[in-house]
Write a structure and sequence with these properties.
With 147 residues, the chain is mainly α. Helices cover 42% and strands 5% of the residues. Strands 1-2 form a two-stranded antiparallel ribbon. The longest helix has 35 residues. The radius of gyration is 47 Å and the shape is elongated.
Length: 147
């Protein structure tokens, strides 16, 4: 009987193993456990040292910040209540909108003098609408050249 090798099976060029099968290969040495344990211990020591130095750095920063005194500027003391320049942020937009609408309603519902020299006055919106209904809207005079 002729033994043929399959293309999918590895061919062994070494001596037969203890089971008597020449097609099986294995490592002849095990992993060095002492080296792996030493590397792991080194990682743990390095992580502990890094954590310790970061903790020291945070302690240094917190004590430095606690000792820091806010600088006092003599010119800024009198300007504490000064408002920033326009436009300012709205602190209460709903209340400001209600105030704006109340002001607009007051203007639309009251009489007032707009321009004394030209004789322009303001009348309440309801009165203005009644006058428009009674008098009608002004119409343009038609030009003779257009149809």
């Amino acid at each position: 009987m002729v033994k043929t090798h399959s293309p999918h099976m590895p061919q062994s060029s070494g001596p037969a193993n203890s089971h008597g099968n020449a097609d099986l290969n294995r490592e002849t040495s095990d992993v060095n456990v002492l080296s792996v344990a030493g590397f792991g211990a080194g990682l743990i020591v390095a992580a502990a040292l890094i954590h310790f130095f970061v903790w020291l750095l945070f302690m240094y920063f917190s004590t430095r910040e606690a000792q820091r005194v806010a600088p006092q500027f003599p010119l800024a003391i009198g300007q504490i209540e000064r408002l920033p320049p326009e436009p300012r942020l709205q602190t209460n937009p709903r209340e400001e909108l209600r105030d704006l609408q109340a002001q607009e309603d007051a203007v639309l519902g009251s009489y007032g003098l707009i321009d004394k020299d030209r004789g322009v006055v303001r009348i309440p919106i309801d009165e203005a609408m009644k006058l428009i209904v009674q008098r009608g809207l002004p119409a343009r005079a038609q030009q003779e050249g257009k149809k």
